[in-house]
């Protein structure tokens, strides 16, 4: 999309590709949202999130509106890059990178989901590794954070394997009920120890031009 180069940013690994979440890619992914393929048990998402909307068409509409709002907010204290996860040419989920006071602190966090028929094959780990490569190698991040409910064993295991360290706990609600979160912290030094040479960044000059990185 030549008019908005941030949507042309890509990250590629031997297994998958993160592509900027254009409306065309979101439209391809909408059936997964409509059909409830974002669901997991126990529920991994804190409130508020569109995935808990019971009406499938309203769920898709709320999901799209949230992404459009997020794409449009680019401020020094908060920005968000949305990527569609593509495997063998097919969209299977999303992986986001969120700048948190990045220009001052150099910190990021992430959010992701994967269609339930694609889980259990290591894609969650690969998605997170790809977005961390963009953050640290491409954007010069100093630290990455993550959190997951204590019963979200998959996400917590990914954080451990990628070198995150425990960073306390917190409370959030999911579907209106309180639940405990694990917080995780990945320093640049810990990421460097596990740095991969088979993850490649494309068109990231747009990030340096259009994001408030410094």
UniProtKB/TrEMBL annotation:
Protein's UniProt keywords contain Transmembrane: no
Gene3D superfamilies to which the protein is assigned, alphabetical: 3.40.630.30
Domain N-acetyltransferase: 16-187
Keywords of the record: Transferase
InterPro entries the record matches: Acyl_CoA_acyltransferase, GNAT_dom, Ribosomal_N-acetyltransferase
Keyword check for Cell wall biogenesis/degradation: no
Gene Ontology terms: cellular component: cytoplasm
GO molecular function: protein N-terminal-serine acetyltransferase activity; protein-N-terminal-alanine acetyltransferase activity
Pfam family, one: Acetyltransf_3
Protein name (Swiss-Prot/TrEMBL): RimJ/RimL family protein N-acetyltransferase
Lineage per the UniProt record: Bacteria, Bacillati, Actinomycetota, Actinomycetes, Propionibacteriales
């Amino acid at each position: 999309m030549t008019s908005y180069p941030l949507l042309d940013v890509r990250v590629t690994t031997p297994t998958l590709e993160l592509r900027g979440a254009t409306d065309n890619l979101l439209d391809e992914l909408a059936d997964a949202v409509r059909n409830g393929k974002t669901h997991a048990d126990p529920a991994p998402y804190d409130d508020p999130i569109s995935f808990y909307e019971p009406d499938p068409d309203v769920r898709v509409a709320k999901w799209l509106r949230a992404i459009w709002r997020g794409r449009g907010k680019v401020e020094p204290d908060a920005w968000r890059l949305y990527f569609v996860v593509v495997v063998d040419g097919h969209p299977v989920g999303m992986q986001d990178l969120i700048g948190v006071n990045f220009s001052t602190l150099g910190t990021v966090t992430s959010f992701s989901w994967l269609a339930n028929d694609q889980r259990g094959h290591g894609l969650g780990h690969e998605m997170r590794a790809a977005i961390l490569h963009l953050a640290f190698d491409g954007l010069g991040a100093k630290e990455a954070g993550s959190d997951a409910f204590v019963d979200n064993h998959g996400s917590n295991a990914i954080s451990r394997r990628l070198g995150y360290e425990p960073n306390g706990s917190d409370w959030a609600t999911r579907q209106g009920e309180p639940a405990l979160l694990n917080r995780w912290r990945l320093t640049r030094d810990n990421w460097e120890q596990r740095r991969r040479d088979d993850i490649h960044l494309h068109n990231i000059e747009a990030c340096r031009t259009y994001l408030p990185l410094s």
